TrEMBL record:
Transmembrane segments: none annotated. It comes from Deinandra increscens subsp. villosa. It comes from the Eukaryota. Pfam families: NB-ARC (PF00931), RPW8 (PF05659). The lineage of its organism: Eukaryota, Viridiplantae, Streptophyta, Embryophyta, Tracheophyta. GO terms for biological process: defense response. This is RPW8 domain-containing protein.
Amino acid sequence: MMTKNPYEVALQIVLVELMKAVASETNRTTKFRTILKRLDKTLRNIEPIMSGNGRLARVLDRPEKETKMFIFHLENGKQMVLKCSRIKCWNVYKKFVHANKLIRLDHELLRFFQVELQVNLSARFRGLVLGDEGDQVLSTVTKRAGGFSSSCNVPGLPDFIVGLDFHLRELKRMLLKDHDQVLTVSAPGGCGKTTLAKMLCHDNEIKGIFGGNIFYVTVSRTTSLKTVVQKLFTHHLYVNNCEFQTDEEAKNELENMMKHMGSPKILLVLDDVWSESESLIEDLKFPGYTILVTSRFMFSRIGTTYKLSLLNDEDARTLLCHLAFPCDGNHMNVPDDLVSKMIKCCKGFPLALTVIGASLRNQDVHKWRTTLQEWLEGQSIFDSDSQLLLSLQTSVDALDDMLRDCFLDLGLFPEDEKISASALMDIWVELYNLDKEGMYTSEYLLELSARNLLSFVPARKDASELEGYCNEHYVTQHDLLRELAIHLSSQEQISQRKKLFIEIHGNDIPAWWIEQTQQPINTRLLSISTDETFSSSWYDLKAPKVQALVLNIRSKRYTLPPFIKKLSELKVLNITSYGVYPTELHELPVISFLSNLRRLRLEHVSLSPSIKFIFQLKNLEKLSFIMCEIGIAFDSYTAEPPMPSNLIELEIESCYDLKNIPEGLCSLDHIEKLSITNCHELEALPKGLGSLSNLKTLRLHSCTRLAELPDSIGNLRSLIFLDISDCLSISSLPDQIGELNGLRVLKMSGCHGLDELPASVTKLTLLEDVICDEETSYLWSYYESDLCDLKINVMEDDRFANFMKIVG
């Protein structure tokens, strides 16, 4: 009998103890939860090596001193993990130091096991078959090899890139010369500056030099120095709840942190810097690291500038044909001279080629000729950004009226921010009388995406599988396309515009607004964006026809404008904070005057106990709380008549301080959709949940502390869709679940605490789909013969798709 290597036994023991410590601390503390989850995934990825035949022995086939030292580090790592909950949340410095120790522990694990992983890599290239676990571990390590960590939060690359290889080589050469600390990539919007910066960050040579010290921040027009520093602390350095009163304080704290890191090579990427932020670059210049800036502006006084040129004819043809002829890039049905003329009109501008190529995808020769003729009848269209806007207008003019309106509505939201697809569809449903279920409304998003007028960002891998539409997606839009939407919406006088976009910097209210007396504006959609320094000093605004109001906020405190009371036709109100922390929302009672309001969306705001005013809106049909501080407000809430008689959908998403749902909400007897997801502190549902007799959809995804479903759930006889996926603390289902005789879809992947199912599930005769993980599928297999129409859909556990992904 073969004797086990003593170090193999010791290593297995210490790794198991470390996994237990990580699991325990992840549940006990929120301060380091992101890093602990990352460490937990690394440990789970290593498990196959621990159990694989001979694989651990190969890992341990190295000097005894190194192995003993590694085991010693792991034992210290266990104590380090157990210390997490003892560090006070206010101690920013200790949190930073401890976070870096945890990150180093994670890197040590990967480095130690990298030998075995390289063996697996060689085996793959020799054509040998590896298990799924091996492929997954290999995927992680190859992404993070050389010390480069996804904690750097560098965005991914587009699927298709052309014409930037030469620029990448030149940019690397200039960056590594080390003569200037700041290097700016400058070009008009839509030339590929951001893509080039991402390519540089993902380049193996650059990763080998800077390792995990590549920090990527999107700056945008209204960003202050303290906001940039807060993003660095929160998203890259894992220091939460840090807040700076002044730019100078933020600058000093960042300089101290950079000195403490002690790394000789740090790369800071500032993407999309506007001319107003030139001083910000100067303030971020510290000894010891390099700054890469992308901007449509030239900063002649700072560092060196690399001017990104447009595509040459060959690359331009490759890009246009790739999009216009998606099958193989062959354009046999379109004459070559016509393609050449179209490319010539685009002047090598990547964004123009992308958008126009998509608009001509699979179109006949007639469409190509008419499009070209429209351009040739005008002036030269790519001499400047304004000319480019005119050229892109051709693609928008090709949209039908409804789709064109939907595209223009994207200008309602701030630049460089993700836009909730659900928020867009709320507007479209009410203003354009589209379907309230969203099935057809989402087609407009898909069509705009197909034309490259926006990009999808799925919030969850399985989001599209939940209810068949884009509710859980976000969209992004290139700055230039947003400018195009605003430009096309602003051709009429302000008082006559159907869509009005107002941006307020500081307290600089537009002159036309201040001067407005008796003359009302006729806009139907109104967007007001304010920055961090706005003091909520409002002037009266007469806008009696507004049906949708979008308030984009960045300040710490925000008072709702008093003129809201007069918006008698308002149907949709969207209030979103884009600050680092939730905005304190004041004067909430003004909402109670909106008698026709049907959809209210509150995102990333802190609400006072006066939310009772919201629940008194008698015509409200949909209410959404997204990433809000509502725990205190809900704790003090008691149902008082009149309750809203028409509320059909209640959505509570990622409200981290929510522990309990008020019992009074169970009096919303007209509600059909209840979604409480990613609320990790939620401990219990109201006992009276079963009184929601009209409820058709109940979604409880990722409520990780929710321990059970109430017994009254059996009274939900209208329930069709139930999602309890990733509810990690649910250990059993109530017997009453068998009384859900209308249930058709049950999602429960990731419910790892479930050991068995109640026998009453055999009564779910209409159940068609159970979506679960492999472990849970075994529990259902015992009942397949009792449920004739049941289909068990096993979802693979994709541990790497959202690895260390942080939403800013």
